[in-house]
Write a sequence for this structure.
């Protein structure tokens, strides 16, 4: 090897080591986010972006706002917090699981009396296929009442904007359906998107709601 | 032998053996506590029993590897120049690993056993926190990295000096018809074989450890349970076997000093070691015979290899040992006695292992104390005996050929032999009577066996303590003179 | 002559990766196991086409440059940036820039001159890491890349596992039968034994 035996010969390697670990640290938000999904969640929690006030059409053909405001439905006036899930009704897998997890959350909310201050939304990102009838089908399958828990679809013209604001990624799968990042998205009273939960993290979502109310 | 130019790192090795001896005694004491608890001599909280079981298993396997590694380092150092810095890095990482593992067990209350199979270590029903499991695994990783450095430090100079692993394994003698006298010495053949399979074992082990670590830290990621089980047993089996294969080098190098006949790399010897190289890696599925989802051919291979495993090497080693000793004027001392005992125990331990490797028997016995019975034989009466034989030789007085055996030596050796043989026999008998392994609390019908086992175990602990003390005193004397 | 060949090959590989970007990146297996290595290889060939191939470095410097490549590889193994390279043109550009330079050229420059223990250590770790990726991708309830299907992810996992086995065979075999020039037989200064 090198005849030079002073400790200086360690410096270049140590320098690269420090720089390398530092870069990886920075690139993964302190090793907290290795995947895009975790990066998205981290970023939401930290920057709490404003959600665009899009209009949705629900399973009964009524118009309602994604955030609160002018078009909130009657009961929605007092409902300060919205929890949104993105689905497509013909999904045979995740969206059905998501539905039953949502149902559990609804039961917990009803039991504890928080049921009339929260709004649960399942929003379809497949407006071409999901008309009010399909939405109603999903509602019936999971017992969504249209008040505490409503099923709606986004307008075709707003689809891209909605996907972008939530970091929603939808890709076609081999069976003619879609794979998508499934999660519960919390929109707080000021209309900011401020937390994300796994679809089965009913406990975590419930606690976050309780904290904010 | 070019002992004059190339000096083995005697100081580092002696220090390592002292550490190993102390840890052996300590871990044996833990074993005694477990056995006494099973026999209801003492009362032990089951949670604590499993922590002790974990410490005993991981600690013993680790220190068996460590002592084997020190022995191999010492003797390979007679033939090639090794890097002392790499040895200290190895030892440092090993000790760091020990600290992590002990903190995980005794601070973090980790009790997932040394093989921590699925759904352990992550899903522990609240018995320990994820950080404890993560610390435990990090400890393993640290030890694994240490061993990787160790094998690089051995493999590189051996490859350079002998012109590749094929020649270091002596293949030119077997396949190209070279004269066995031109073959490498037994130590190099053994070192080359162990380096290959234990490096692969370490690499596979590291993969499953890091994957488990990711799973612990980011629960969304998961590891396929069956694949993980395969990997864990592959590296577990390879690692514990490697410890014996490294320790047996002491026999090849030391026995000739007593008999005056050099241990030769004969053709059968070379072939046996090459066979071991394959078998050690192909035999691990005999641990998975109860996993019905495993492909049939793998299980059958595990069974077939299990018959063959060890036999060639054992036969060659035990047979040659007999031949070398027979009619030689070797004077028996503690070192030689322990080394010969080591080869004997290793050979005998193979028999119950082969029985357990049979699919039919395995279905009934694999989770009984038959299993600790067989591996305690080839560890306690095999690897550990060889290690203490090496230690006794390290601190011998004068030339090996002049040494003798004092009454104290004889008593120590006898106690060890009786204790270890009795202790392991009781395990085998209990196993044959279907007493399960890894049970903290035993049924009333088993208590008598457990108590007899405990008494034998106490003999082992006592005699081992005497061996360590003798070694420490010998080291001190060596220092002064 | 060979230089021109290297330069041409490098250019062909690189432009192939750029032109068939869409096709290669549509499937994570070709993305990770074909495009990324090909980009690195383009960097290797590029360096071999220049005088830099003769540069003699002190071992400690060669070690440092080798580590640069290691960290660059780590970075591009992060699912987050693989995802990002598909939707963010800056990240995609960085990928096409850094893989040939930081990985390929660095290794072509420094690998052979790095300390043999470091090389052996890195090779062993590379095999382990491919194994880890295999473990995690084959059996992930979690979608690791939002851009790819779970079934693709599993295929990629098997791809990593196969790569791990292939690489370990490819690296072990020469240890058994090194060419005479690579062992102690020749005491040449450039010591090329691959550990
Ligand atoms: C005085 C000596 C020893 C005693 C009293 C002892 C005692 C025990 C006991 C009671 C068990 C648990 C058996 C069961 O499952 O019911 C055990 C397991 C074990 N022992 Fe020992 N042992 C001794 C020496 C050794 C040595 C020298 C080694 C290795 C070098 C060793 C390695 C192991 C291993 C790997 C296990 C399995 C742990 C597990 O099931 O996870 N033991 N021992
Ligand atoms: Cu779905």
């Amino acid at each position: 090897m090198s005849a030079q035996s002073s400790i200086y010969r360690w410096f270049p390697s140590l320098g690269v080591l420090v720089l390398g670990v530092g870069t990886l640290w920075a690139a993964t938000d302190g090793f907290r986010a290795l995947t895009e999904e975790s990066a998205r969640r981290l970023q939401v929690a930290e920057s709490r972006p404003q959600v665009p006030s899009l209009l949705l059409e629900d399973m009964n053909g009524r118009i309602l706002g994604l955030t609160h405001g002018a078009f909130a439905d009657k009961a929605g006036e007092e409902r300060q917090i919205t929890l949104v899930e993105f689905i497509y009704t013909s999904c045979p897998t995740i969206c059905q699981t998501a539905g039953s997890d949502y149902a559990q959350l609804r039961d917990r909310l009803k039991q504890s009396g928080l049921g009339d201050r929260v709004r649960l939304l399942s929003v379809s990102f497949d407006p071409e296929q999901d008309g009010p009838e399909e939405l109603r089908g999903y509602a019936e399958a999971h017992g969504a009442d249209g008040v505490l828990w409503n099923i709606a679809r986004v307008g075709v013209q707003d689809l891209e904007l909605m996907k972008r604001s939530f970091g929603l990624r939808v890709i076609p799968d081999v069976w003619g359906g879609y794979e998508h990042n499934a999660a519960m998205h919390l929109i707080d009273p000021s209309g900011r998107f401020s937390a994300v939960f796994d679809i089965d993290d009913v406990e975590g979502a419930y606690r976050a709601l309780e904290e904010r109310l | 032998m070019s002992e004059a130019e190339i000096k083995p790192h005697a100081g580092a090795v002696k220090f390592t053996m002292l550490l190993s001896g102390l840890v052996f005694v300590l871990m044996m004491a833990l074993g005694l506590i477990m056995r006494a608890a099973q026999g209801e001599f003492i009362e032990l909280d089951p949670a604590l029993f499993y922590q002790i079981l974990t410490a005993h298993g991981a600690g013993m396997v680790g220190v068996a590897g460590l002592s084997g590694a020190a022995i191999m380092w010492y003797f390979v150092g007679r033939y090639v120049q090794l890097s002392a810095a790499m040895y200290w890095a190895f030892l440092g990482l090993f000790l760091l690993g020990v600290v992590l593992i002990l903190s995980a067990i005794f601070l973090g209350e980790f009790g997932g056993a040394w093989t921590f199979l699925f759904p352990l270590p992550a899903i522990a029903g609240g018995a320990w926190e994820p950080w404890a499991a993560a610390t435990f695994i990090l400890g393993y990783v640290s030890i694994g990295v240490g061993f990787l450095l160790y094998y690089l430090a051995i493999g590189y100079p051996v490859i350079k000096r002998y012109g590749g692993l094929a020649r270091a394994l002596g293949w030119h003698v077997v396949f190209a018809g070279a004269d066995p006298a031109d073959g490498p010495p037994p130590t190099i053949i053994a070192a080359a074989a162990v380096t290959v399979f234990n490096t692969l074992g370490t690499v596979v082990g590291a993969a499953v450890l890091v994957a488990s670590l990711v799973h612990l830290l980011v629960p969304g990621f998961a590891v396929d349970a069956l694949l993980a089980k395969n990997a864990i047993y592959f590296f577990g089996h390879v690692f514990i076997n490697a410890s014996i294969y490294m320790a047996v080098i002491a026999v090849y190098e030391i026995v000739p000093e007593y008999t005056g006949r050099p241990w030769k790399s004969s053709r059968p010897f070379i072939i046996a070691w090459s066979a071991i190289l394959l078998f050690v890696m192909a035999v691990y599925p005999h641990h998975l015979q109860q996993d019905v989802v495993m492909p049939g051919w793998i299980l059958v291979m595990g069974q077939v290899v299990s018959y063959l495993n060890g036999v060639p090497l054992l036969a060659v080693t035990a047979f040659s040992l007999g031949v070398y000793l027979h009619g030689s004027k070797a004077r028996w001392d503690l070192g030689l006695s322990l080394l010969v005992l080591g080869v004997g125990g290793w050979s005998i331990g193979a028999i119950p292992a082969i029985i357990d490797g049979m699919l039919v028997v395995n279905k009934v016995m694999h989770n009984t104390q038959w299993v600790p019975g067989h591996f305690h034989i080839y560890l306690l009466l095999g690897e550990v005996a060889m290690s203490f034989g090496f230690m006794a030789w390290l601190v011998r007085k004068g030339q090996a050929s002049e040494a003798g055996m004092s009454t104290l030596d004889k008593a120590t050796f006898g106690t060890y032999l009786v204790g270890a043989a009795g202790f392991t026999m009781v395990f085998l008998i209990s196993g044959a009577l279907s007493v399960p392994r890894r049970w903290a609390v035993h049924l009333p019908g088993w208590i008598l066996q457990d108590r007899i086992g405990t008494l034998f175990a106490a003999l082992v602990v006592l005699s081992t303590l005497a061996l360590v003390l003798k070694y420490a005193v010998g080291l001190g004397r060596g220092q002064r003179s | 002559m060979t230089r021109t060949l290297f330069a041409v090959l490098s250019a062909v590989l690189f432009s192939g990766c750029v032109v068939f970007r869409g096709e290669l990146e549509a499937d994570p297996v070709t993305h990770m196991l074909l495009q990324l290595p090909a980009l690195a290889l383009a960097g290797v060939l590029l360096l071999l086409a220049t005088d830099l191939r003769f540069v003699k470095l002190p071992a400690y410097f060669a070690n440092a440059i080798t580590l640069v490549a290691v960290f660059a590889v780590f970075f591009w193994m992060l699912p987050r940036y693989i995802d990002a390279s598909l939707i963010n043109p800056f990240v995609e550009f960085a990928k096409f820039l850094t893989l040939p330079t930081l990985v390929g050229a660095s290794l072509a420059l420094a690998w052979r001159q790095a300390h043999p223990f470091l090389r052996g250590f890195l090779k062993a770790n590379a095999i382990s890491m491919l194994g880890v990726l295999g473990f995690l991708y084959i059996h992930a309830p979690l979608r690791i890349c939002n851009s790819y299907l779970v079934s693709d992810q599993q295929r990629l996992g098997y791809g990593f596992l196969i790569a791990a086995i292939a690489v370990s065979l490819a690296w072990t075999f020469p240890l058994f039968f090194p060419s005479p020039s690579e062992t102690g037989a020749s005491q040449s200064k450039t010591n090329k034994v691959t550990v």
In short: Residues 3-45 of chain A form one domain. The helical segments of chain A are 11-27, 36-47, 94-112, 132-142, 159-166, 202-212.
